[in-house]
Amino acid sequence: MRRTFGLRASVLATSLAAALVLGACGGGETAPAAGPAAPAPPAGGPLDLAGVCPATVVMQQDWQPEAEHGGMYSLVGPDRTIDADAKLVRGSLVAQGVDTGVDIEVRPGGPNVGFQPVPALMQLDDSIVLGTVYSDVAIAASANQPVVAVVGQMTTSPLMLMWDPASHPGAQTLRDVAASGVPVLTSDPIITALLEKQGIISSAQVDTSYEGTPARFVSDPRILQQGYVTAEPYLYEREITEWGRPVANQKLADYGYSVYPSALSVRADRLEQLRPCLEKLVPIMQRAQLDYLADPAPTNALIVELVETYQTGWSYSPGVADYAVRALREEQLVTNDPASGVFGQFDPARMQEIVSTFGPIQQAQGTITQLPAPDSLYTNEFIDPSIRMG
User: Fold this and answer.
1) pLDDT for position 8
2) What is the pLDDT of residue 170?
3) For an engineered disulfide with 87, which of 11, 112, 165, 372 has Cβ 3.0 to 4.6 Å away?
């Protein structure tokens, strides 16, 4: 699980409980009306995964269903079934309109897996082919549960700090707000350590007690509070009735939070075994994210349906799904790799910077004892360099 993604569940479950009515879905499996079967690809072609990938390609997410993982969900075919008990969706893996000859199973993380980090889940379950892992999580797991990122789905993290414009008139940046000495409410000590290291905040401002509810922000709007540019600006203005007005924000990526968010990763000791599969699957994942952003509506409908069916207390409305897609585009969270111009590729210099920035912080916090080699955390060998955002 990406630690700070977990906060959004209780924001919605707590503040919207009175207004929220989850669909009355029972347990077991549900399936939509069957649509026309997708055609098969040319045998042995780039979209033919039969015989080279596992019969079921299992993908493990770090949080609940949401637009940030739309590329994965877009591959689930129309013959899908939703298992409300196991909290997963499975169906034919359909890419670019063709049935690849294998199935896909997408599993959510967070409370559905006891908040276990994705590298730990992958270590326990050999059936997981790809998992979403933030770069700093990969660093933390490098000694005992190493993973290798094979394709990036987002270029920039949506993590941000937000503030009330009325409480800080004239403030243009989070640095401006932090200079007033207000508390910085987060759940992740890495965030505050990064800001402290740059002299943006002092240790006296650090408050890592954030539980995800809007209560503190509503009652004390002077504070800086973490959130996501793909969700909280919409939620606080449109769905959190206790607030009901805009918030200002700035991405932490502007202050050195340079991690690759939710990079699709494999277990390091399975890289060779999965190589024939990854040679075909990674380009499919590159295109899937771009195809999703070009036509998100069908996949967003599935994401909302899954959330309603799973009934975990997490809420995800069509409105926030649509907003998230706009944010992914407009905030340039999904772009070509700036260094190479290729979508989904990792920049070696950036990965070196990530280890140099976050490794010492994790060492100081006792998370790791030794820095991993940056090139052990990723590979670009399966990337199709012809795949680029238009």
Assistant:
1) 40
2) 95
3) 112
- Distance CA(324)–CA(317), nearest Å, equals 11
Name the residue with tokens 């660093």: 139
Tell me how far apart the alpha carbons of residues 171 and 185 are, in angstroms, rounded to a whole number: 18
Dihedral angle at the C-alpha atoms of 8, 234, 256, 121, nearest 10 degrees? 30
Q: Taking the alpha carbons of 283, 289, 291, 292 in that order, is the dihedral positive or negative?
A: positive
Return d(Cα 333, Cα 233) in angstroms, integer: 15
- In whole angstroms, what is the distance from residue 93 CA to residue 256 CA? 37
Of 9-23, 123-137, 293-307, which gets the smallest average pLDDT? Answer: 9-23
d(CA 241, CA 23): 21
Domain residue spans of the chain: 3-22+39-154+259-376, 159-255
The span from the CA of 265 to the CA of 57, in Å, is 13
Partner residues linked to 378 by β-bridges: 149
Question: Comparing 3-22+39-154+259-376 with 159-255, is the CATH topology the same?
Answer: yes
H or E, element range at 291: helix 271-294
- In the CATH hierarchy, which fold is given to the domain comprising 159-255? D-Maltodextrin-Binding Protein; domain 2 (3.40.190)
Q: Where are the beta strands (DSSP E) in the chain?
A: 29-30, 56-60, 81-83, 88-95, 98-107, 128-133, 147-151, 159-163, 184-185, 206-207, 224-228, 248-251, 263-267
**Separation between Cα atoms, residue 109 and residue 6, nearest integer Å:** 9
76, 189, 355 from 360: Cα distances, Å: 40, 13, 8
What is the CATH topology of the domain spanning 3-22+39-154+259-376?
D-Maltodextrin-Binding Protein; domain 2 (3.40.190)
Phi, psi angles (nearest 5°) of residue 88: -155, 165
Average pLDDT of the chain to the nearest whole number: 92
Give which of 115, 245, 135 is closest to 187, Cα–Cα: 115
Q: Kindly state the tokens that stand for 167.
A: 């409480």
| pTM metric for this prediction | 0.91
- CA R_g for the chain: 20
- The pLDDT-based confidence of 79 (bands split at 50, 70, 90) is very high
The alpha carbon torsion through 169, 232, 212, 357 (nearest 10 deg) reads -80
Q: Is the dihedral of CA 313, 164, 248, 350 positive or negative?
A: negative
